[in-house]
Amino acid sequence: MIPQEIIRRKRDGGTLHVSDIDAFIAALARDELAESQIGAFAMAVWYSGMTREETVALTLAMARSGDMLSWSGIDRPIADKHSTGGIGDNVSLMLAPIAAACGLAVPMISGRGLGHTGGTLDKLESIPGYGITPHASHFRKVVDEVGCAIIGQTGTLAPADGKLYAVRDVTSTVDSVPLITASILSKKLAAGLETLVLDVKIGNGAFMTSLEEAETLARSLVEVANGAGVKTSALITDMNQPLADAAGNVVELRNCLDFLRGGKANTRLETVVLAFAAEMLTQAGIAKTLLEAEAKAHKALSSGKAAELFARMVQALGGPADLLDHPDKYLTAAPVQKPVLASSDGWLVACDARAIGMSVIDLGGGRRHPQDKIDHRVGFSDILPLGTKVSKGDRIATVHAADETSAEKAVADLSANYRIGDAAPVLPPVIVARI
Fold it and tell me: How does it assemble (predicted)?
């Protein structure tokens, strides 16, 4: 294999053979390529694109660059979900135990915050003792005995993806649909999934801001995953406002616990969680229709079974056994809490969800650099949804901050972020499309 020949062929718009892609990614995983060659390959793909067959081959090669998990002996369908990231998106925390309560095995390998979006792992690390990197044998044991486990990616799972992404991040090639597709799916294939459902966000708080962009990515992900042997579908969901009524780590974890106790009924968040549960159950054959599947998921939630499994998962991964019963013992509150008040009478008609995510980072709840330490306590709670009628002085959110100065800035930023109008807005549905 001559790397520069593979780079040249792709640069000039040619189609790479599966053997070329396999050889290039194998060399990448063995650290046999110069960083300049990796960057040139990424730029060639960004410029010339890839066929569906090439993207499948790239995804499989990256998945096989490290450990491939096996779930043989577990007599339940192996399923997972992935989100492209948003604000107040804590769906995974509730979805995994709901799906497990309905008979699925959910080995969910999640990530940290990316850019302005929050990360599932950062939220879970708010729980004292929770281990996000268990040994593979313990990971399997928890999935087998509890039904779900949410952990982080290890260095042995699709390592080629991490090495390629590090170069993409500094060569302006992150926004290549084939490379995004291979990056997301390689980790999922390495996790040994049988079925997968994808949440592709669209809106001012998402990486994809137009429906055309979101549909292009969703179709690529679905077609490549199915081509690689994993039964996959995608929902495009609205991210023009925070999905939950909280944004931050501890505050979103509290939101999760409240949800599992039945405290978030008839919200946009519940709609999304139950829709993804229904997708997972129908894909796995546990329900024949989406309507039947959603009813099963709702029963798992309302009966308390999903909450029980979440508690068992937390304990099995090192967290406290009584987190659901006594969250205040373990989830540290921010020392300063201040209300954000409506500046006038009217309707909440619009906000900049991305700016809310950046405000969480400003408070210390996210990272500007990979090595930054997160303050899990900070963020926003009690966020009113768009379409709410308010009077001047009504609380539209609460700021959780480490000190008075950062709290005052966050109050001012969030107050300026929300637009209040004279009439109720026409809002997009939370489930925009199914691919």
Answer: Homodimer.
